[in-house]
Amino acid sequence: MSTERDAEHGTVDRRERFLEVLFRITLVLKGADGVLELLGGVLLLFLTPQRLNAVVVFLTQHELGDDPNDPVSNWIVHFGHTLTGSATLFGAVYLLLHGVVKVVLVWAVLKEQLWAYPWMIGFLAVFIGWQGWELARHFSWGLLALTAFDVLIVVLTVHEYRVQRRLREARRAAAAEGAQAATG
Fold this sequence. Notes:
Shape: elongated
Transmembrane segments: 21-47, 87-107, 114-133, 139-158
Protein name: Putative membrane protein
Number of domains: 2
Number of helices: 6
Organism: Leifsonia shinshuensis
Number of strands: 0
Structural class: mainly alpha
Distance between the termini: 38 Å
Helix content: over 70%
Largest sheet: none
Keywords: Membrane, Transmembrane, Transmembrane helix
InterPro entries: DUF2127, UCP034455
């Protein structure tokens, strides 16, 4: 009987360890995404639409030289031509705010700050909703993959939040028992 229980307990420990590692990996990836958004926001703040367009042309010229009908490169070039000062400012502010929120929340969750878990869940839930709306309007495999990744992070964050709350409650109970034993 005890070997069955030990084997079951070992399986649970391996599963929990796997979920914890997966959770940390996804958080680091989400944090790296936040850092990239910050860098993109800073670039947009300091690059004029004309400079941005020149960068776009430079980055796509090789591909368009090989295939002048490449739809992705042509779309990027077209997008670069439509950039305005207000559009780049909006993009910069959006990326900076979004990046800061991501980096702060990821950092706080990695530091096991309980307040950050519900904020991370709520933040991602809002974006999952928006991404779902965009998917319904204009399907994209990339957006579908991003949405699935965000859903995975939410599921893992909910799980880890519950684990962290149980651990804190167990520590409080143990501390209370220790204090009671010392006084009693």
